[in-house]
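Appendix B. Extra example for self-study. Work through it before the problem class; the solution is given directly after the inputs so you can check yourself.
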Amino acid sequence: MKINYQGEPVDTTAKTVAEFLSARGVDPAKAIVEYGGEVYAPGADLSALALVDGASLDVFKMTAGG
Amino acid sequence: MSANTYLTPEERAVLELARVGIAGAGGLGSNCAMHLVRAGIQHLTVVDFDVVNESNLNRQFFFRDQLGQKKVEALKENLLRIDPDADIRAVDMQLDASSAQEVFADCDIVVEAFDVVDAKVMLVSSFASSGKKLVTASGLAGWGRSNEMRVRKMGNIVAVGDGETSVGESAAPASPRVGIAAAMQANSVVAMLLGEEL
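Solution. Structure tokens for the complete assembly:
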């Protein structure tokens, strides 16, 4: 299936948002995730969030520095 | 009367009534506060528990003769030099998820300006479900790549920075890029208060 990740079309075989992010090395405990119009705070359980063809997924990684 | 003589009466009325909370008075927080006061914000709640160190002077809005001072007190001094009428609530404490809700209860918008990831995560998680507007920043280390710095609206959270670069052994925090992020945070706060596009 194809989803829009960070505004770009991406092919994936991942079944869930958690699986997709894990494959890309994104730690959901340290990221804000927006999927399907919903915003998920860092640490939210994304394992039951099914990926749907054509959906948009945006991630903002929280990193050290200030 | 605020420090900004360019404001329309309508803009002045909005900005002079607003209270903005700033969690952390380091590179992000001190510079964001400076921009906000220059923009015309007159009520700030600034929270930090640290003192001004030599290593802060490469990017933070402090001066050499303030070394050793509590950051919130030094920042208040500096902000009052810009606008002597500003109401700066300087809170010397280390925030947690519960105290952050109390300290910023009367703030219209809160700025996350911590440097440690766990503290950033704590504050964002604390406010994500509250509905209060929060402006967070991540991805501001190193030099160059100015065009990778951007503003994203994610529900009640506005996230600025490149969202990738972490301060560490290969990338230090420096004034230009930290300053861009701090200015983007301040710009987002003012835009939200005035109902302008982010």
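Self-check: Strands of chain B lie at 19-23, 43-48, 87-92, 109-112, 133-137, 150-154, 157-161. If your reasoning did not lead you there, revisit section 3.
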